[in-house]
Amino acid sequence: MSSLGKIFLYLVLVLLGGALAAPQAWHLIQVLPPDWLHGLIGNVQGMPFHRYLSRSLQVAAILLLWPLLRSLRIRSLAEFGIKRNPSPLRDLSVGLAAGVLCAILLQPLLLLSGSFLLRHGWDTSVLHALPRVLMTALVVAAIEEFLFRGVLLGFFRQFTNPILAIIYSSALFAGVHFLNLPSAGSHAASPVWSSGFAILGSLGSALPPWPILSLAFATLFAAGLILAWMTVRTASLWAAFGLHSCWILGQQLFNVAAGFQVSPPGGLLPFFGPSQCNGMVPVGLVPLASLLIAGVFAAVLLRKRERPPIFRARTR
Description:
- The protein is mostly helical.
- It has helices at residues 3-30, 36-45, 49-63, 65-71, 88-112, 122-159, 162-176, 195-201, 203-206, 210-234, 238-257, 285-301; strands at residues 116-118, 258-260, 273-276, 281-283.
- Helix content is 67%, strand content 4%.
């Protein structure tokens, strides 16, 4: 079987494995005491089923990755252009600084525009949610950076030049996030073995209207471009991890503190819209502009960093 055939088989198995595992994960979580881990288990128990499916797909992707890499005779991420970073904290701080700048630019504008309003007792709610949101940001950013920038970007760099690899991986990064939308079976009282397949089969009906969808995709695609460029620029995942985790932390804490107030939801488009993908993807030209400014800021901070050699793996 060719390398591309093996990758296609891997993707099929990830979908099958994730869809079959999600109902089992849901039932397992429901029997745990809800007060475990300072109430974190209770929060997870209250999540809709499509969130379980999304996480199950990510876990399946990680578990099945090792046999795929073995079959492709890839021994380490170094073959994907990820090198040992002698100064990881330096690159991490660049990503964090860019993420903080994005939040400083965007979140006051969301409030000043009237598209979002602060909730009553928002300060107490933010402090209470901080440990849970911080853990979510770190775990999600680590998983997605490893999969999308560590592995997927590296796969594309095996077969094409770095620019096209960045574009392809960013498009997939954007598209995969729409698997995390509520659809048929998302709020099932007790998911059955086929519930994951039902959600996958009904994704088309769960997509938002095209103006919101296109702007959400543009935001995710731009984020993917920036994160992939940072990975190629530093030959490391640290800068991208810092920026990605800071984005998630800032957006989720903002969701705790404020709520979208515009009716109809597209009333302020194309400048502002309702956040998508569980509130983690702000929508509109203003969020997109703040994201791009953060990317430019990261490029400025990295301008004097030594450049790794342009990586191009052997053709398989």
